[in-house]
Write a structure and sequence with these properties.
Elements lengths: L1 E4 L7 H13 L3 E4 L7 H8 L4 E4 L6 H4 L7 E4 L9 H6 L3 E3 L6 H17 L1 H9 L16 E5 L3 H13 L2 E5 L5 H5 L3 E2 L2 H7 L2 E4 L13 H6 L5 E4 L8 H9 L5 E4 L20 E3 L8 H19 L2
Parallel strand pairs: 1-2, 1-3, 3-4, 4-5, 6-7, 6-9, 7-8, 9-10, 10-11, 11-12
């Protein structure tokens, strides 16, 4: 089998060389690349002879997959699969497997970190001090005692809820599937509309699918408190981003934090969420830690080994 890792995955050459030796002992060829190229021509060139390919969150449409005539298995170094043309893969017998669980801690920690910054204005206060300013009359808000609505209690939503309980927040939740371990924390499930009305902070943790696309739109934003905060570390299109931007500009919600957008950053400088200082933005980094990338490589190549052993 010809195994190709089309990008660096944030791991070093030494790890790749060990993998190359590992697969050579099994009688397979392993090719890896230490850079990340997202253009279709390069992806097609790198994957054209692969039986097995490893890729993270680079968009992989049918126009690329159709040039990979030998491809039988995709090990995706990412939790979501909405960037892969799964319909094409099903039609052509290409098995696709994600790397669930590798970034649970990383994403949940960033979500809570964003909440803390929105409440305490850490970034803007840092800039103010560097420009010679002082506290003045600034007052922050505490996370303890706030009602935080978790939208989606999969692994990441559950981990985020656990952190928030430790901070002393009151956690409520909505999810398509309710989990006993979440209820055991004292978290109450309720309809989404009720969660939006009651929450001081709404944190999104749902996958992107037809049911969740545009889940938070104009109607839902109207239900939120004017003092409420919205945090999105899930997927950009879970929100109607234009509606969120409008709500921020009109002060109908107090603030927001987004790590995900309609497409991968860089964003255009006139992007609506950049037009207001009420929104904290990061370039889709919630999953990206040294620890999570090491765990991801273990999961991804473990999946390859399991598939090869069938």
């Amino acid at each position: 089998m010809n195994i190709v890792c089309v990008e660096s995955l944030g791991i070093g050459r030494e790890r790749f060389e060990a993998l190359k030796a590992h697969y050579a002992e099994m009688g397979h060829e392993f090719t890896y690349y230490m850079d990340r190229k997202e253009d279709e021509a390069t992806l097609a060139e790198r994957m054209s002879g692969a039986d097995v390919a490893v890729i993270s969150n680079i968009k992989l449409p049918a126009t690329v997959l159709s040039q990979c005539k030998k491809l039988k298995y995709l090990s995706v170094a990412f939790t979501g699969l909405d960037h892969i043309d799964l319909a094409y893969c099903r039609e052509h017998g290409i098995e696709v497997q994600n790397a669930a669980g590798y970034s649970t801690t990383a994403v949940s920690e960033l979500a809570v970190g964003m909440m803390l910054d929105l409440l305490r204005n850490i970034i803007s206060l840092n800039e103010m001090v560097r420009q010679g300013g002082s506290r003045g009359t600034f007052l922050g808000r505490e996370l303890r005692g706030k009602t935080v609505g978790i939208v989606g209690t999969g692994a990441i939503g559950t981990a985020t809820a656990r952190l928030l309980v430790a901070f002393g927040a009151k956690v409520i939740a909505w999810s398509r599937t309710e989990r006993a371990e979440v209820k055991a924390m004292g978290v109450q499930y309720m309809p989404l509309d009720d969660l939006l009305r009651q929450s001081d902070i709404v944190s999104l943790h749902v996958p992107l699918c037809d049911e969740t696309r545009g889940l938070i739109g104009e109607r839902e934003l109207q239900l939120m408190k004017p003092t409420a905060l919205l945090v999105n570390t899930a997927r950009g299109p879970v929100c109607d981003i234009a509606a969120v931007g409008k709500a921020l500009v009109e002060s109908r919600i107090a603030g927001a934090a987004f790590d995900v957008f309609e497409h991968e950053p860089p964003l255009p400088l006139d992007h609506l969420l950049l037009s207001t200082n009420r929104c904290l933005v990061t370039p889709h980094v919630a999953f990206a830690t040294e620890e999570s990338f090491a765990a991801r490589a273990d999961i991804v190549f473990g999946h390859v080994d399991e598939w090869l052993a069938r």
